[in-house]
Design brief:
Length: 217
């Protein structure tokens, strides 16, 4: 399967949001990645459901909604109402993760689970078969533009081994510090989906960067 590219809206120009979303619509991007932060689970606040509902009207790419919040199970209905394709929750934020994943599926969305950099992939042994996506944070969540955490490459290999050993189709998504060099190494290690924020939106030609990420081998 050719890798999927999911530009992160967190790095877009919020004074020209429609322009940037239209660029994504016309690009080779596969998903639009949306980081919702609450200032509690992570030390930052991003945007909420009014933005997502507005995006529903103009975004033509599947919306990949990443909840960096406490008690994400309380907002399953609200996320589903935005037309989200995928709802991704943090392992560390869910006391009853299996129940949350089931609720996401019942709401008609694909389900993802995210691991923070300090969390080992072994934690997923009993849940990986129940989700469509596992996302590994390759920076500490909360801010864009951070330096890539090198151990993520080895974690990706470990996760790929687990998924293959179980005979699953679960996708591996990586979020943080993705560029042409780290992206290539992550794909070689078994990643399927690359999230890129600052690297895309700070470029002179973001659509060209997306195209090059899509073409990495």
């Amino acid at each position: 399967m050719k890798q999927l590219i999911a530009p992160s809206l967190l790095a877009a120009d919020f004074m020209n949001l429609q322009r940037d979303v239209e660029m994504i619509n016309q690009s080779e991007a596969d998903w639009l990645h949306l980081d919702i932060m609450d200032g509690v689970f992570v030390p930052n606040i991003s945007f909420g459901f009014p933005i997502l509902k507005g995006l529903k009207k103009i975004c033509r790419k599947p919306m990949d909604v990443h909840l960096m919040i406490v008690e994400p199970h309380k907002f399953i209905r609200e996320v589903a109402e935005t037309g989200a394709y995928l709802m991704n929750v943090h392992y560390e934020a869910c006391t009853h993760l299996h129940r949350t994943i089931a609720g996401i599926h019942e709401a008609g969305m694909k389900a993802g689970v995210t691991l923070n950099p300090h969390s080992p992939v072994s934690l997923l042994e009993d849940i990986v078969q129940d989700v469509e996506v596992v996302m590994l944070m390759s920076v500490n969540p909360g801010y864009g533009g951070q330096k890539f955490i090198e151990h993520t490459v080895e974690k990706t290999r470990q996760l790929r081994e687990m998924i293959d050993r179980k005979g699953l189709n679960t996708l591996i998504e990586i979020d943080g510090g993705v560029n042409f060099e780290t992206g290539k190494r992550l794909l070689d290690a078994g990643a399927d989906v690359l999230v890129a924020g600052s690297f895309v939106f700070s470029a002179a030609d973001p659509a060209s960067v997306i195209k090059e990420l899509k073409a990495l081998k």
